[in-house]
Amino acid sequence: MDVKLDHHHRLTVTKIFRHPLSHNIQWHDVMALLERLGEVGESHRGNVTLAVGGDVHSLGHPQGRDLNEEQVIKVRHLLAALKVVPEAA
Questions:
Q1: φ and ψ at 70, to 5 degrees?
Q2: Which end of the chain, N or C, is more open, meaning fewer C-beta atoms within 10 Å of its C-beta?
Q3: What span, in angstroms and rounded, lies between the C-alpha atoms of 40 and 32?
Q4: Is residue 86 classed as helix, strand or coil in its secondary structure?
């Protein structure tokens, strides 16, 4: 993916891909990153949708302000599919 990320976005990507899994990734940081990558919307079920090119991806909202482990893994897979990884960020 050919998108320029600022320092804040690159830091969020690094947190998402960190091992061991980071537990302090805030939802608003992920939303800012997703908005930079494509068009963000909301599905009829209330999930967040990300449209990039012809593809639409869906993510659930976290319970609190931070992502849980399952959500971090889902965002990690989404970013990897879009070829947004720490080395390329």
A1: -60, -40
A2: N
A3: 10
A4: coil
Ordered by start, the domain boundaries in the chain are 7-81
Number of other CB atoms surrounding residue 61 within 10 Å: 13
Q: Do the Cβ atoms of 67 and 27 come closer than 8 Å?
A: yes
CB neighbour list of residue 72: distance below 8 Å, 6 or more residues apart = 16, 21, 22, 25
User: Residue 35 corresponds to which tokens in the numbers above?
Assistant: 């908005």
Residue 22 DSSP class? P
Mean pLDDT by 10 residues, the chain (89 residues): 86 94 92 95 89 90 89 94 79
pLDDT for residue 43: 87
